[in-house]
Amino acid sequence: MKAELTRQWRLLDLQQLDTRLAQLAHRARNLPQIAELAAVSEQRDRAAEDEVLARVAVSDAERAVAKAETDVDQVRVRTARDQERLAAGTGSAKDLQGLQHELETLARRQSELEDVELELMEQVESLRTDLDRHTAAVAQFDTRITELTAARDQELAAITAEQEGAQGERANIAAGVGADLLALYERLRDQRGSGAAALVAKRCTGCGLELNASELVRIKAAAEDEVLRCEECGRILVRTAESGL
After folding, report:
1. Do the Cβ atoms of 210 and 203 come closer than 8 Å?
2. Contact 72, 114 (CB under 8 A)
3. CA angle 49, 51, 54 (to 5 degrees)
4. DSSP H or E run through 204
5. CA dihedral 165, 166, 169, 174 (to 10 degrees)
6. Could you tell me the CA-to-CA distances from 232 to 119, 207, 224 in Å, in that order?
7. Using an 8 Å Cβ cutoff, are 100 and 87 in contact?
8. Residue 9, class by beta-carbon neighbours within 10 Å (0-12 exposed, 13-18 middle, 19+ buried)?
9. For residues 107 and 152, is the Cβ–Cβ distance under 8 A?
10. Three-state secondary structure call for residue 104
11. Is 224 helix (H, G, I), strand (E, B) or coil?
């Protein structure tokens, strides 16, 4: 392939921009906020699950307290009724004695139920404290997620702006390369990650290897507009004033 040396030099500018664009794309994929967002979101999901379980536990305990209160109220109502009957003194002595015995039994039952109620109420308070802790944790994770999302979006916006600038500059440079040379460059770039490299101090800057004597002789003898390839890496090898020929 033949191409004016000025067109070949444009390939080096094009390769520099493509390298920069690849770096920007890698940076966008590997922003530290992305990894931290994933980790914090996972922690937030676990905290939310714990919060749900804690809320269910509080609800169950509150129902148990309500039932205990109902049981206590029932005993109190029955006690009040028996006390009224006993105070009225109606019925036989045996009946009144039976009422007195029942009142004693009800008093013991009420005391037991009130102890249960108190224990359940203390349990509810403990569970509510636990729920508040999980709720606060979820809120903290949500705040961090919001911060990380904003930081990520800001970084991505800056990267996108830089990418757009580089792509515009690339289009201008590519237009001066020529379709035939550009097609070769693009094919090599797809295969090797980069399509062109400068020959500097007898060394290919693409693979980093120094050319042997016979290869240097071949390059020196080549016409200025001949498109050369590195024998080691296959990239387009562009001669410059620093080639050392």
Report:
1. yes
2. yes
3. 110
4. strand 203-204
5. -150
6. 82, 7, 21
7. no
8. middle
9. no
10. helix
11. coil
Q: How far apart are CA 230 and CA 199, in angstroms?
A: 9
What residues form DSSP beta bridges with 197? 237
Render pLDDT for 178-233 as a digit per residue (tens, 0 to 9): 999 999 999 999 998 899 999 999 999 999 999 999 999 999 999 999 999 998 89
Is 162 within 8 Å of 24 (Cβ atoms)? Answer: yes
Per-residue pLDDT of 25-75, as tens digits, reads: 999 999 999 999 999 999 999 999 999 999 999 999 999 999 999 999 999
The packing angle between helices 5-29 and 179-192, to 10°, is: 40
CA 39 to chain centre: 5
User: Can you name the residues that pair with 114 across neighbouring β-strands?
Assistant: none
- On whether the CB atoms of residues 210 and 202 are closer than 8 A, the answer is yes
Give the integer Cα–Cα distance in Å for 148 and 121.
41
Distances (CA, A) of 116 to 69, 121, 135: 10, 9, 28
Closest CA to 15 of 163, 231, 189, 233: 189
> Residue 174 CB: number of other CB atoms within 10 A?
20
**What are 207's two structure tokens?**
């693979």
